[in-house]
Amino acid sequence: MEAGHSPKSMSFVLLLSFCFFFASVRSVPSLIGVHPLDEKYYSSEVIKCKDGSRSFTIDRLNDDFCDCVDGTDEPGTSACARGKFYCRNMGSTPRFLFSSRVNDHICDCCDGSDEYDGNIFCPNTCVMGGNAAYKNSYYISTSRDVDVINRKVKEEITKEDLFHRLIGLKLVIILQVALTCFAVLIWANRCRAKSKRRRHR
Questions:
Q1: CB neighbours (10 Å) of residue 86?
Q2: Do 185 and 13 contact (CB within 8 A), yes or no?
Q3: 139 touches 108 (CB < 8 A)
Q4: Is this model's pTM higher than 0.85 or not?
Q5: Closest CA to 86 of 77, 73, 95
Q6: How confident is the model over 92-135, as pLDDT tens digits?
């Protein structure tokens, strides 16, 4: 069997792939731009706009077309002028920002969740105190309603939020250790292969 294709290295590659898959599943919320406490609100087949004006079906959620004047149906896109996008910012402070900031090629959330269309790469800087870099960004911070929302967001950081933050940190550490082990394993296999060749000479 060739170096680099041993059962140990193959199982390690599979484990590493699983870790990357698990990390990607955890890092992308199922309801983009939605506050965790609103997830039940969006779980039914027919959802009423929060202003009570009309209803929309679940397949029209985040479809980039504004059905509700208040932006209830488009929390994760910039389709509604009055929409609000929720940054989870695991490892830092969660917050709301205007939906017009979604996919505008500017990293507003420290977790990069507001730029998910792939046109720009936003590194996750939340764990490193990333919010400090975004204090001058265009966050909602003027009206009384928004002050109330921000106050509620701070009050609603629950044990579950803390748990998710710890999971995120743990995944980062696991991936770093896994990549280091993988690099060491490849290096060790190459060294073994070289020593075998020398012996056969």
A1: 25
A2: no
A3: yes
A4: no
A5: 95
A6: 999 999 999 999 999 999 999 999 988 889 999 987 655 444 44
